[in-house]
User: Fold these one by one.
Assistant:
Number 1:
Amino acid sequence: MRDLAQSLEFYVGLIGFSVAYRRPEEGFAFLELGAAQLMLDTTGMGRSVGDAPQHLGGGINFQLEVADFDGIVARLDAAGWPLVLGPEERWYQTLDGERGQRQLWVRDPDGYLLRPFQPI
């Protein structure tokens, strides 16, 4: 991640995560949303985990089950945040049969693809 403030605005302000704790001197924040946990770590601050690629995100796709899908849609819309796809209703074949969900696809400030969904 390149800009902690911008990422916090996206993940906390638009998606609905809460900040469990922060280490500002390291450019770090630990976020929670339901059972999901996310660590934001600013490139070039704190401990090094290797060289950061020029383009973060790549083809990674994070699926995130949420309780307030409509709230996320409304906040993204109000912020004018561009969606990659959706919102939509999709049904997928799984080992336990067919499973439906409301979902959308959105990129975070560093290009990571996030797919918030709510089961139907």
Number 2:
Amino acid sequence: MELAKIVARQMAADVKRGFSEELQSDADRLAQLTRDTVGLVGEVGEFANLLKKVELAFRVDGYEGYSLEIASADLREELADAMIYIIRLSNVLGGDIENDLLEKMAKNDERYRHLEE
């Protein structure tokens, strides 16, 4: 599925769940950006916490924790949660996350071209 279709699906789901797609003022947009940023940071924190436990289990004898293989599905789920927040943030800012991502990748291609030689 194309990223644009994923974005449209997420935004339609948000509307069905009662999230307003029509933020009328900068105050409304700022409030939504703040809420979604807190949500994003929370999801990244959950990813980091699980990764910390995997790393401890790998490095510390006797530490009861998950292997990377076992934790991978949960880690991917946290990344997906984070991506949903990124989609929402981009939407509030009037962005096109697919286009913005491609533009940034092109900038990075130019910036780091010297490393590819």
Number 3:
Amino acid sequence: MLFNSIQYLFFLPLVFILYWLVNNKSLKLQNILLLAASYYFYACWDWRFLFLLMFSTGLDYYTGLKMHDSPNIKMKKFWFWLSILVNVGFLGVFKYYNFFVESFAELLSTFGLQVNLWTLQIILPVGISFYTFHGLSYVIDIYKNRIEPERNVVDYSLFVSYFPLLVAGPIERATHLLPQIKKKRVFNSDQAIDGIHQIIWGLFKKVVIADSCAIYANEIFGDYESANSLTLFIGALYFTFQIYGDFSGYSDIALGTSKLFGIELLRNFNYPYFSRDIAEFWRRWHISLSSWFKDYLYIPLGGSQGGMAMKVRNTFIIFLVSGFWHGANWTFIVWGFLNALYFIPLLLSGKNRFNIDIVAKGKMFPTVKEFFGICVTFFLALVAWVFFRSETLSQAFVYLKRMFSFNFNGGIEYLSIERYSVELLLLVFFFLIMEWISREHEHPFFGRFKWLKIVAILFGLIAFGVYSQASDFIYFQF
């Protein structure tokens, strides 16, 4: 079920009404309703994979209890590694098995050995990377004695499968979400209205910005071998806004939806395209994943406690694993490697923690230095997104080679044949302005001109939204 579908338009109000009708009866009934709604939401994708979600949930729930109740460290380690290996095993089979098999076959072919290895014809369960990471963080926190195991199976199951975040995050922690699930919620009209505002803004990002930019990005990336440099740059630019509008739009809808139920989720994006360096960018992009890798991989590897060689090693590991998390393709690994290369100079110079606060906070315009930093960081991200979007490494390298060949003959080639021409550029510019004035808030709907901005965004949704066919969110494939 897509957030931008008619089906969800009926599903959400129905669950909302039933949820608050049972609020005065019991918290348990309220959580059972949310869990049932979450399972129905997930089953709408493919009901067969609902059993995989339930098995993963049951495994982590049971092993969490067994670890806590283990009489000795040996048994505790046994249950811990059982959960880790089964979870990672499922993720490996469904997401990475074919990648390793095909890569191994290609490696053998370089030595003149031709082999036919068995690959799996399977569908990737939607959201498996996200709910697996929910379970892993829970099990690790119990093993490290950071939290007590949850003994209420309904509450734990809801933590894992809560439908606003189930298929594309944010990646929640038990320490943040479970206390809210176990606490009685009281309807707060201000919180609900704020949630509706955030949903509207998220929908605008998705159906107006992301889906409109996708039209051009798909055309240009599909014809990259004949397009000129300016067109290829425009294609990369549109994908840069497509992936941001798509993923941050999903996150806004998820956070806004959860506010309707009195539950606050972790913020996942904080205006990353206004970052002044790549370190700041990664503190503002997919925040829940970055913090997950920091807490459960970077720090256990030694973090920043060792010498510079260890810091550099750990940085490369984090970015490479992050790239691989996104998909079983060398393009994602190179994307992660490239971002690590961007990050290393800041680490070596000790400037990776310089830009912590919001750019130009309390001011209308940034300084010249800040503006230059924003432009450079945005351009570096744009180049890296070419690898993320490309289907193969060869396509990415050819695309970049042609983009930097400075062949401008014919101007921008695609603006006259698609849904928009200048209008899309103006929409992107309008979007940037709205983002800039909102950078100290979660969404633009605040202050004296709140209703004027709401009307403008609603008009944009009606006039420029892409509704001919509800499109999947990009991060569903991860």
Number 4:
Amino acid sequence: MTLAWILFAIYLLGTAYLGWLGHRKTDDFGSFAIGKGDLSPVQVGVTLAAATASAATFIINPGFVYVDGLAGFMHLGISVYLGFVTMLCVLSFKFRRIGEAAGALTIPDWIGKRYGSKDFSLYFAVINLLAVAFVVLLVGGISIVMQKLLGVSNVVALVITLVFVTGYVLYGGTYAHVFTNMFQGFLMIIVSALVLWSGLKLYLEGGDITAVLQAKDANLLAWVNPESKLFNDWFSTYVAGFLIGGALVCQPHILTKALYVKSDKAVLRYILVFSVVFLLFSLLLLAGFWAHVAVPPEALMDATTGAFRQDLVMTVYLQQVFPDWLFTIVSVVLLAAAMSTLDGLLVGISTITANDLVLNIFSRGKSARNPKEQMRLAMRAGHLVLIIMAVAVFLVALYPPKLLGIFGQVGVYGLVLAAVPPLLAGVLYQTPNLRLVWAMSIVALTIHFGLFFFGEQLFPTSTLAFANPGLTAAFAIIFSVFPTLIGHQFLKKSEVKN
């Protein structure tokens, strides 16, 4: 416990110092939001990988693989990875060029300027508040590890996390996010190699792990798990994973990384760096298999309720396979992994709320202000939003939802689904149609939330896994993106005829 506190204190001090360096480079709201375009592709690539591979990847998702087996790994690991990288390549280059020309700072800002509509930008500023659900997931994951590592209560863990991360983001903005994520990202790379080595060691020392899994439950090695509530058919497991992986690029702290650099060449380089590093992180979900061999089932039971806790799988696995001193080091890095995504989200949400919600409202009519006053107001609003959000997340995380991973996915999927039609149309078409993409954005939200909450009642004879938010999101993508693309082709032909 003493070693844990020492290492954690060193981590806090190092991160705080990097936050201070970020503060020195932040001199206005623009640099707070996206920097000054002076970041290298390696910095952006590692930062993006660290921000994408969050508490879900390192802490929560191995539990789904433990329960659902190969189907869970193929959905959450490989399918999502392939979809993510594909969409990143499709959107990033033109998104950067259009955003740079328009002076966009956020995704709602980009959308509003691309479509010439402040109302559309305001709509997305409100929708982006759904990202708070993902913040709860991250904070909850951090709390789980911190309680095990430092021996503190949930309340203390939440206070430390929210005060510290909110503090350095409030102080240094995007530069603090990038500098700290570089530090956290390289720590995560080292730990990923250690964890993957632990799995290889189990194979070398323990014989055929696949035989152990087969003996426990043959469905753990099935490409589709018929007993799973989430991955019980090919569509839910593979198509839904690929589609939602692509949609996740539209998160507020992901696609805007393209605005951190000044050329398409730099975009290509950071995508290559990201692709390699994020693949390494995605392979950590294999720990869900290894836990069946290394972890006794009783170790995954809640001490208070006696209920199975799948969100403990990764933490308990590491505790079993590593000596205490190495488990302590690895656990500190797991905290870093979660905080690396949390700070990126906080920067994105606070910037969007300030720039696209507060300024959007105050820049209208009689309350319009000059540009300097607007930037000062935006900076103050961004700071205030961070504080309010920290308090709100603390209150929700005091009594976290049963499955943190599902809770976070439902909210963040809604956020990204709304953004996919306008972003794709804005990148692929010269004159995208505002009414069409706005309508399809609403359709995507309606289908996703409607099927997730009411799918089983609406389709009682269906075998589809409506409890899997990736499935409901996939249907939302299919019935919003394809009509968007086809509709624009039809409108284009109509314009030519006229």
